[in-house]
Amino acid sequence: MKSQEHEQEHEQNCGKLLLTSKEAAKYLGISEGYLRVCRSTGKMGHVTPPPYVLIGRAGVRYDIRALKAWAASLPTYRSVNEYPDEVSI
């Protein structure tokens, strides 16, 4: 059931260009709080957090195209032995 709800919400968001922090976090599979902390510190583990835009009173928004490009640029691994030294398991 949860999978169907997630799929429906994803389909609804596909038409949106700018996502809220909550929507972006859900899209990335992380908590909104973690995304907020990463945005504030400029750090997300061993990578830079995704880019965002600030739109007046509407606040922080994430361009879905930038999120997709950011996610696609993340390093991939075949084994934990390939992790950079600064990554802890």
Report what the structure shows:
There is one protein chain. By secondary structure, this protein is mainly α. It has 4 helices and 3 strands. It has helices at 2-14, 21-28, 32-41, 64-73, and strands at residues 18-19, 53-55, 59-63. It has a 3-stranded antiparallel sheet with strand order 1-3-2. Strand 2 (53-55) and strand 3 (59-63) form a beta hairpin. Helix 2 crosses helix 3 (32-41). It is globular, with a radius of gyration of 15 Å. The model has no long low-confidence stretch (mean pLDDT 85).
Biggest β-sheet, characterized? 3 strands, antiparallel
Number of distinct beta strands: 3
Low-confidence spans: pLDDT under 50, at least 5 residues? none
Number of helices, counting only DSSP H or I runs of 4 residues or more:
4
Radius of gyration: 15 Å
Q: How much helicity do the residues have? A: 40-55%
Net shape? globular
Relative strand content: 5-15%
Sheet with most strands: strand arrangement: 1-3-2
Order of helices and strands: HEHHEEH
Q: Mean pLDDT across all residues, rounded?
A: 85
End-to-end distance, in Å? 31 Å
Based on secondary structure, the structural category is: mainly alpha
List the helices and strands and how they pair.
Layout: H1 2-14, E1 18-19, H2 21-28, H3 32-41, E2 53-55, E3 59-63, H4 64-73
Antiparallel strand pairs: 1-3, 2-3
Helix pairs in contact: 2-3
Brief digest:
The protein is mainly α and 89 residues long. 46% of the residues lie in helices and 11% in strands.
